[in-house]
């Protein structure tokens, strides 16, 4: 039976913190991209072509980026779950050794 | 908490302790930790002091304790930490502790010795047994196919088989270290020239090496030879190789008999088990009592060291101790003495002194961090105004001005919040990493710094370098576009477009809180922010310094030097306000009075300020208000006039007072400039020199320190730019991918962004802003009023056990 424990306690804690931060920040970023916030215009990968014919194409780009942010947020939620699982395993191991 | 404003009143007192109850009184006082004892016998060497015998006894007990501790550790046990702090033992109890500890140490030594000798014997017997058993293999009769073929050697000549030979075959059997086998074999072969047959086989189980203690698989050898000389040579060689040689009986029967006998002897060594059990019991007892004893003896030694500092009065047959005692605690000290002494014969008496007492400022866990950063520069002089209560707010605020970012501030705040909420957890408190402990000690500091950074982040409108449009922006691009009727051709050829606030509808009024988010899209973002931040830094600097000068008033009043109010405080304030207070006024006036409509003809404050000092005027620079030139002239003259007052006022005043007939008035204890009994001529030169230095430092300092506050602008600019660069060079790469793979790519990109944010922006920039905020406090703020030449009151208290 391969041991499921692959991270130490500190790495699991770091993973947990990073995942929590990632989920919160990426969800917020996704929301802001979704409402076509002007402040984030520099981060949208537009080309010269997209400026022709009204703002619709830019808005589609915005929404694409926002979906990417949500996907990343979901992946971070998974990573957070994994880190939580690892930290639980670490705690159990600590109790058993004592 | 009244004493956070200035340090407490501390007085010099004398304790009169009867010889019989001196020990218990000091023990009582040590438990409470109120007084600092002064050494009344500084010239006496430690070996000639009164209680040197007792101190030596304590040290001997500590040596015994160290031995017991080592034995415990060798057996792999850890002594439990002492649950509650026991009091220092009385003389009888100390004697009992000493006797018991020595007895335990003696027992431990004996038991260990007997155990190690028993184990040696057991090992010896077992080795012998193995030698005999393995040797059987070589000398037993070949039984046919059952003979192990893997030996690789011919069976040794068995005397019972080859009894027809004339020579008598002898054996040498023993045990040798595995690393020496090849050398041993080679030497035997060369020395004995083949008149022997040697066989080596590994012992079936590993055994302990008596020298090093590690477990080694020994090699058993059996050498059969004939001839006396050869025999002697072999024995000598085995001796050189440190082999353990055992007798090897020739006949099979005697061998089996020897084996059974050895078995019997090994069984007899069951006493080894009992010895081990007894040793475990002794170690248990030691582990139980050792922590308490250690603390008790530590306390006893501390008390005797303090008693050594007292002087013995022969006439009254009592010990006299001189202590620094906070006045507020005198009743507690009296209480403690009454409790400690048998007949209430010990008492405390206050003694007048001209020396400057130590500084005592009582802090709680929140204020301790701020007090420590003030004390790091210099402990406050006795009863001088303490800058710490103001630093609780000004320090995090000045830090936040250099660090303003909502996202970073929030991260810092959450980190500090975690430390504060879990501050009682033993895992956090017992960290040994020094850097971690530094952060932990300053957790309230970091908490406030983070909270204030969130506030200034909202003012600068920056969250991870992105502006947040909480309120709608006050600038309307549509109005400008309609007004200028920008065509597509115009837009294609002009990469940067100007929004003119003078056009109606483009600028709808100031943003409700903070900086308008549209500025983050503007190319002249930095031009606008630089002007704003520079002016803000100058304003804050002058307010901070003015506040520092005003704190000096409290010092002048408290030390009853009211002449300094008129002769120092007033000229200082006039100099500061006339020049730099006026600058602040100009800044605010221009902000209020001039708007975008006058932007082409708005006067430059800098040019006006320079002209003010040079008494010139510039035709192109319009005045800010009518009558500006004469007002400025008056202010400059006022400021220049205050310099000689500052320079000569106090020295002349003191000189006049000394020439006039002196009235004897008791001065405040430990006043600043205590000039009571020295030569007059010598004094005046010193006072004048001191005042000259102070004047020059103050006047030049005003100018340079005001400029020094511009670091608030510089660091906030650096932080904003670093934050923006990090976003555009790291995070932006995560948004480039437009397919859904882009979402997966964003995960490592964000991780990199997070790590770099913490490492560069939080740790590096945070430390940098912390350092600069500290410098601004220590130098620019505190040199307006703070002397910081005191020393701390270190009360005699029993420190918690810091063993290991």
Describe the structure.
The complex is a heterodimer of chains A (98) and B (804). Chain A is mostly helical and 98 residues long. Chain A has one domain. Chain A is built from two helices and no strands. Chain A has helices at residues 9-34, 56-97. In chain A, helix 1 runs antiparallel to helix 2 (56-97). The longest helix of chain A is centred in the last third of the chain and has 42 residues, at 56-97. Chain A is rod-shaped, with a radius of gyration of 20 Å. The model of chain B is unreliable at 141-155 and 667-678 (pLDDT under 50). In chain B, helix 17 (525-558) packs antiparallel against helix 21 (680-708). Among the domains of chain B are: 128-139 and 167-266, 2-Layer Sandwich (Alpha-Beta Plaits); 526-659 and 679-736, no CATH class. Chain B has helices spanning 22-32, 52-74, 91-139, 181-192, 228-240, 252-268, 271-308, 330-340, 367-377, 388-403, 406-421, 426-429, 434-441, 443-460, 477-484, 488-493, 525-558, 563-593, 605-614, 628-659, 680-708, 711-729, 741-781; strands spanning 10-18, 36-38, 169-176, 196-202, 207-208, 215-216, 219-226, 244-246, 311-313, 318-326, 347-351. By secondary structure, chain B is of the alpha+beta class. In chain B, a hairpin with a 6-residue loop joins strand 5 (207-208) and strand 6. Chain B is built from 23 helices and eleven strands. Chain A binds chain B through residues 18, 21-22, 25-26, 37-45, 61, 64-65, 67-72, 75-76, 79, and chain B through 411, 464, 466-469, 517, 520-521, 728, 731-732, 734-738, 740, 742-744, 746-747, 750-751, 754.
């Amino acid at each position: 039976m391969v041991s499921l424990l692959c991270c130490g306690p500190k790495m699991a804690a770091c993973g947990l913190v990073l995942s929590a931060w990632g989920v919160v920040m990426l969800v917020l970023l996704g929301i802001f991209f979704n409402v076509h916030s002007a402040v984030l215009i520099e981060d949208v990968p537009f080309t010269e072509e997209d400026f022709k014919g009204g703002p619709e194409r830019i808005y589609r780009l915005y929404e694409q980026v926002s979906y990417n942010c949500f996907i990343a947020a979901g992946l971070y939620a998974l990573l957070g779950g994994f880190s939580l699982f690892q930290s639980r395993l670490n705690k159990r191991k600590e109790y058993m050794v004592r | 908490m009244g004493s956070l404003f200035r340090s407490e009143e501390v007085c010099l007192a004398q304790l009169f302790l009867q010889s019989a109850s001196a020990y218990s009184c000091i023990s009582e006082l040590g438990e409470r930790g109120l007084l600092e004892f002064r050494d009344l016998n500084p010239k006496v060497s430690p070996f000639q002091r009164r209680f040197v015998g007792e101190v030596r006894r304590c040290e001997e007990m500590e040596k015994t304790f160290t031995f017991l501790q080592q034995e415990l550790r060798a057996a792999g046990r850890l002594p439990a930490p002492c649950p509650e702090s026991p009091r220092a033992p009385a003389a009888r109890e100390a004697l009992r502790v000493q006797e018991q500890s020595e007895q335990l140490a003696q027992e431990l030594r004996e038991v260990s010795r007997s155990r190690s000798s028993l184990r040696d014997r057991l090992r010896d017997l077992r080795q012998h047994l193995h030698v005999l058993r393995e040797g059987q293999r070589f000398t037993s009769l070949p039984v046919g196919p059952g003979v192990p073929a893997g030996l690789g050697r011919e069976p040794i000549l068995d005397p019972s088989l080859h009894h027809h030979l004339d020579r008598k075959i002898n054996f040498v059997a023993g045990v040798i270290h595995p690393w020496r086998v090849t050398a041993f074999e080679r030497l035997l072969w060369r020395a004995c020239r083949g008149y022997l047959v040697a066989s080596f086989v590994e012992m079936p189980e590993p055994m302990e090496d008596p020298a090093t203690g590690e477990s080694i698989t020994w090699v058993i050898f059996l050498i059969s030879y004939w001839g006396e000389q050869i025999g002697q040579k072999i024995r000598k060689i085995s001796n050189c190789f440190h082999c353990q040689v055992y007798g090897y009986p020739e006949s099979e029967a005697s061998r089996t008999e020897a084996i059974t006998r050895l078995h019997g002897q090994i069984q007899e060594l069951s006493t080894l088990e009992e010895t081990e059990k007894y040793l475990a019991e002794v170690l248990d007892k030691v582990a139980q009592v050792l922590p308490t004893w250690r603390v008790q003896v530590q306390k006893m030694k501390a008390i005797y060291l303090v008693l050594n500092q007292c002087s013995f009065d022969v006439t009254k047959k009592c010990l006299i101790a001189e202590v620094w005692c906070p006045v507020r605690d005198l009743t507690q000290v009296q209480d403690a003495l009454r409790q400690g002494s048998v007949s209430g014969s010990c008492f405390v008496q206050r003694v007048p002194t001209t020396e400057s007492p130590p500084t005592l400022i009582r802090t709680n866990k929140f204020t301790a961090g701020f007090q420590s950063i003030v004390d790091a520069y210099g402990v406050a002089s006795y009863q001088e105004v303490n800058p710490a209560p103001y630093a609780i707010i000004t320090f995090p605020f000045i830090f936040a001005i250099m660090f303003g970012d909502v996202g970073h501030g929030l991260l810092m705040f959450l980190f500090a919040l975690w430390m504060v909420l879990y501050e009682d957890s033993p895992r956090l408190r017992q960290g040994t990493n020094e850097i971690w402990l530094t952060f932990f000690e300053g957790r309230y500091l970091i908490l406030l710094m983070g909270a204030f950074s969130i506030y200034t982040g909202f003012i600068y409108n920056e969250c991870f370098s992105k502006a947040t449009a909480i309120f709608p922006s006050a600038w309307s691009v549509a109005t400008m576009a309609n007004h200028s009727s920008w065509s597509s051709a115009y837009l294609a050829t002009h990469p940067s477009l100007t929004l003119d606030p003078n056009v109606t509808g483009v600028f709808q009024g100031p943003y409700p809180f903070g900086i308008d988010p549209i500025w983050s899209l503007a190319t002249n973002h930095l031009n606008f922010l630089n002007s704003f931040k520079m002016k803000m830094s100058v304003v804050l600097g002058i307010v901070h310094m003015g506040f520092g000068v005003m704190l000096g008033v409290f010092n002048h009043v408290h030390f009853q030097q009211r002449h300094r109010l008129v002769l120092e405080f007033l000229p200082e304030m006039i100099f500061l306000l006339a020049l730099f207070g006026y600058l602040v006024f100009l800044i605010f006036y221009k902000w209020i009075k001039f708007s975008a409509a006058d932007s082409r003809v708005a006067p430059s404050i800098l040019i006006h300020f320079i002209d003010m000092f040079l008494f010139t005027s510039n035709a192109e620079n319009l005045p800010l208000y009518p009558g500006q030139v004469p007002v400025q002239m008056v202010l400059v003259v006022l400021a220049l006039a205050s310099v000689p007052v500052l320079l000569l006022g106090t020295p002349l005043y003191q000189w006049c007072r000394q020439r006039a007939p002196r009235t004897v008035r008791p001065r405040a204890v430990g006043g600043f400039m205590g000039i009571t009994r020295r030569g007059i001529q010598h004094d005046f030169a010193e006072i004048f020199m001191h005042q000259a230095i102070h004047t020059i430092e103050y006047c030049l300092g005003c100018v340079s320190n005001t400029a020094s506050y511009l670091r608030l602008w510089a660091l906030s600019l650096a932080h904003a730019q670093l934050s923006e660069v990090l976003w555009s060079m790291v995070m932006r790469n995560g948004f480039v991918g437009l397919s859904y793979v882009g979402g997966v790519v964003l995960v490592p990109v964000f991780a990199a962004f997070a790590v770099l944010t913490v490492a560069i922006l939080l740790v590096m920039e945070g430390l940098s802003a912390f350092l600069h905020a500290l410098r601004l406090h220590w130098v620019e703020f505190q040199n307006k009023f703070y002397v910081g030449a005191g020393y701390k009151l270190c009360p005699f208290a029993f420190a918690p056990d810091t063993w290991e």
